[in-house]
């Protein structure tokens, strides 16, 4: 069944958030801080690994890199577009709206938890490639593995941020579900190179999110999200040139 991976992932996020919220009152602040820091470091290495996997090749025993210019242009162009639109402001506004609907106006960390968690679990190689595989072949194995990782992440986050983390299940349902549906429709036209490019650019954004978690906000990752559209535009340009 195509789309099952996203359903599993969404349920995992809701379940992990619920357990994290249950544990919140039983965890001291220092414990919450160390869990956030360690989780941030883990996300950093997930991002680094995904980026290097897409950029490094070994030919005849020689390590080579590829896609450096595409990564640079993706981040720069995406950052400029995102800053002009001010996506982070839109995400914060969405978080505030959901906060009002959830009747959690007194929760000062609701929006922070919603935005940070949504970025972590939505942006990255596993979300993109897993959703594409689910849409192409009905293979949800990668999203199932991602569900386990997300379960742990949201459990930790919910123990710190609270209810806002649970509502990150909405973006993941829409985002991954949207990719899966789009893949069902245009799957035959997607090339392996485009998927790889989307994966390592997304992983670079995951690295930035990890830094924000571990060391405090250093990057406006929300405003960098349009970087994911640059590889698509690049592929279209090459197609029409040929």
TrEMBL record:
The keyword Transcription does not apply. InterPro entries: DUF554 (IPR007563). The chain crosses the membrane at residues 7-23, 35-56, 68-85, 114-136, 173-191, 198-215, 221-241. Coiled coil: none annotated. It comes from the Bacteria. Keywords: Membrane, Transmembrane, Transmembrane helix. Pfam families: DUF554. This is Putative membrane protein YdfK. It comes from Clostridium magnum DSM 2767.
